[in-house]
Every structure is written in C-alpha cells, then in structure tokens.
Amino acid sequence: MDPNPISTGKILSPLDAATPEQVAARFGELRKQFDQDTAGATDENGWKSLRDAWLGRKSGVLTQVTDTWLKPSKPELKRAVGQSLNELKAHIEAALESRRVAIEAAAEQSVLAREREDLSLPGVARPLGSRHPLRQTFEEIERIFLSLGYSVVSGPEMETPYYNFEALHIPEHHPARDNMDTFYMAAPQGASPLLLRTHTSPMQVRTMEKQQPPVRIIVPGKVYRRDNPDATHGFMFHQIEGLAVDTDITFCDFKGTVEYFVREFLGPKIKTRLRPSYFPFTEPSVEVDATCVFCGGKGCNVCKQSGWIELFGAGMVDPAVYGFVNYDAKRYSGFAFGLGVERLTQLKYNINDLQLYFQNDVRFLRQFA
To answer: Are the C-beta atoms of residues 283 and 315 closer than 8 Å to each other?
Structure first.
C-alpha cells in the first residue's frame, strides 16, 4: 500500500471560496477514500501502513487536511472544516481499531489452525520397553512356587562368613571360602568380616532362626563369585534358593516338587533325572538334569550327544544345619535347591551367551517384548 495514497491531487486542493456544503462533500470524498484504503489492509503490515498514511504526524492525510484546509480557511468556514475534520478523525480511529482487532483475531485463528492437532490422524507410536528376560524368568519361577504355597523372601547381599558358610555346614577349609572364589570386604579392626554372598542360601538359616516349621520359601537375588566373565560365567549373577522344612518331608516329596517345577517351566514333555552329587548343606545331594530342550533328548552339540542338560543342584537338608537354628532333626526334615536364573533363561529362550543379559542391546531385548 502507498504510505500516503492521496498526498497530491484534487481531493486536497485548497478550499478557496468553498461553501459549507462543498466542505462536507470534500470530507465525504476523503472518508470514501479512507474506506477504500481500509479494505486493502488485510494484515498487520497493511494496517500499520494505513494508520501511518492517515494519522502520521508529518505527512499523514489528517495533518495535510489541517495544514491545507483548516488553518488557511476563512473564519466563517473554520467551524464547518473543524467539525468535519473531527468527525473524519473519529471515523478513522474507530475504523482502524476495528480493523486491528479483526486482523489480530484472524492471525490468532491462523496460528490455532496451524497448531491444532488433528485427532483423526493416527498417533505417533512410541517405542515401549519390555521386561528383561531375566525378570521374566524370575516372575515365572515365582509364579510356579507361589502356586505350591511357597513365600518369597529376600535378604542382604553383603553377608557374614557365619551365615554364608558356617551355618550352612561349609567347613573352614572348603575351597569356596578361599579369596580366589569369594569377594571379601575390608572391615575395621575388631569388626566382623563381611563378604558379598556367594549364594542366596544364607536366607535358609536366617529364616529358620526366626520361624518354626513349616517353612516353604524361595529367595531370589544377586550373588557374587570371583569368575572371569565369558559366555557361561560372570562375577555377578542371579539365583533363586528354595527351602521346604516340615514334619515327614521325604525324598519323594522333593522329587515330585522338582519334576513339577521343571515341567511347568520348560514344558510338559520334559523328563527329569537325578544324579548323585555333593553339597555341604544337603545330604543326600543330587544334580537335577532334564532332557535337552533343543534336541528332545536325541543328542546334539548342546547336550554333547547325551540327550540331557544339567539344570541345578539340590538335595535333602543336612541334619547338621538344623543344629544352627535349634530345629529338632529327629522331628523335622526338608529339602533345598538352588536355581541359576541365567542358566534357566538360556535354556528357555535359546540364548548362547549370558553376557547379552547385561549389554543393554535394544536389538536383543526387543525379542522378549
């Protein structure tokens, strides 16, 4: 828009000997011209140009009207010119304000239209995390044993040698107590030594100290041993200890519980077998094997053509352990087992490297969503 659209021409030519009627007609032409200019002011810049062209102090139309018509007019015309000028100014100011409000409203509606979210469009799919495979295994094992009436308990990861070894009938000369196998913590002079627990079995003793039979618990948690990390070993891993103590618990009860758990966890077609073994706090002790989940017991490279895979160690609680918790070994009996969570997860999901559990590789974790 021309910043001063009618600065020259006939409209602002001198009034000379005009009559009041002619003065009104001339101001009517100005008003008509302003209304035409107003129609072209459709945005903020156009509105500012219109305002400056008509109300500008130096060269605005109303300033020119004052200098060209009002000041030099004869006394008998000043009243008519001044009155018409005031009416034109009021009209211009009202029209400018109305136009400003309309332009601002239109601009606001335009912004809202641009920023408005179309709820009919499909939303942005946010990637969702999944439960870690180890956590899924924990929950599955807990579900199975909770259905059998077991309770879930937890205990400290930093233990004393008494609960970690002595009360579990592990003698002082046992290799597991050596510095090469166990993480010992520096303790102040005179204080009891501490260590990072090598199994969750200490909770057997802690629970039996506080509770008289019947006892049926599982103890999930982290354990620590001095192993070099590789595909099958780690210095930190997870274990679930199990303990059942009551009157008249027999080896048959133990065998039935183990078989039920293995079939629930790995599938109804899986068979189990028990091999004699040795653990300081169980007697008799066994290794629990299951038919290979990869070849169905036919023999493959994973099971070394034997058709069987070792799952975990277990056995009947050694009566010597009851002496540490004041249980009557003649009245009570029970069994205990220790499940390696990483190993069971590897078998269930066919994972060949336990280091994958701790590398936070999204490509690996997404498989378990």
So the answer is: yes
